[in-house]
Amino acid sequence: MRIKLIFEFVKKISLPLILLVVLAVWGLWQNNRQMAMMFYNRGLDLYKDKQFEQAIDEFNEAIRIHPRFAEAYDSRGMAHYYQGNYDLAITDLTTAIEINPQYAIAYNNRGGVYAKQGQDIQAIVDFEKAIQISPDFNWPYYNRGIIYFNQGQIDQAIADFDKAIQIKPFPNVYAKRGLAYYKQGQYAQAIADFDKAIQIDPNFEFAEAYINRGNAYLALGQITQAIADYDKAIQINPIDESAYYNRGLAYEKLGMQKEADADFAKYKDLGGK
Fold it and tell me: Is residue 88 situated within a structural domain?
């Protein structure tokens, strides 16, 4: 009889208790998620300011509170990457992928770390996985294109840069496609792409686009335009030795040996060999 009474009592209270427990757990989970997000957002702000060590501390807290926070692992991995801690970066990015196997950004980022380590095959596998998951994600095409470019597979590189530009253009991809065209001797197309990179960001990559466009002008024999671009590059970044060396070459072509010698001397002063 006693057993029956206890059973009846449990039946009466079990559903409300279960609901209360579920609600309590849900509330705790939501609170933890909000706390983790707060630390994560603070970490992102520090990351954007390139304060990577402090950013990692914030991501650590986010992960401690919410151990399956894939974005926090991804961001901490990239902070490790920018500190040069590539193995730690790979570990975090792999964890992000294990938590969310459809996380295209983490695949792209891990591919970038593999590429930095010279592991091109693994990098391409990750870029292709990112593309498979998210075909309209422009960065994996760009990053794969860089590997093809570095391997001398210029046509494949241009195809990937074309696709990245088709999805969403940005200065880097125009600048890289410009270099690819330059490698093929297509100097006019190269200049058009460097124009685009500069138009989007006049100070792009410490004046690299100006130097490369100057090189294309120099190859076409348009010496005055080349010198103007080297001048602009030096104005933006006065310690870029390649701008002085290339401007020296341009001055030589104009027979301005005194100016050329001055640029070559500056090139050596800045560490050029």
Answer: no
What H or E segment, with its residue span, contains residue 67?
A: none
* CATH number of residue 203's parent domain: 1.25.40.10
Q: What is the pLDDT of residue 207?
A: 85
Closest CA to 187 of 215, 155, 226, 225: 215
**Residue 140, in any domain of the structure:** no
In a domain, 2, yes or no: no
**Has residue 184 been placed in a domain?**
yes
pLDDT digits (tens, 9 = 90+) for 163-211: 999 999 999 999 999 999 999 999 999 999 999 999 988 776 668 899 9
Instruction: Tell me the residue range of the domain where 265 lies.
Output: 171-273
The token pair that represents 155 in the structure block: 């046509």
Q: Count of domains in the chain?
A: 1
Q: What is the full DSSP assignment across 186-247?
A: -HHHHHHHHHHHHHH-TTGGGGHHHHHHHHHHHHTT-HHHHHHHHHHHHHH-TT-HHHHHHH
Q: Cα(36)–Cα(44) distance, rounded to whole angstroms?
A: 12
Q: Please spell the DSSP secondary structure of 177-197, one letter per residue.
A: HHHHHHHTT-HHHHHHHHHHH
Question: φ, ψ for residue 219 (rounded to 5)?
Answer: -65, -30
| 45-102 tens-digit pLDDT | 999 999 999 999 999 999 999 999 999 999 999 999 999 999 999 999 999 999 999 9
Tell me how far apart the alpha carbons of residues 188 and 194 are, in angstroms, rounded to a whole number: 10
Q: What is the mean pLDDT of residues 244-273?
A: 95
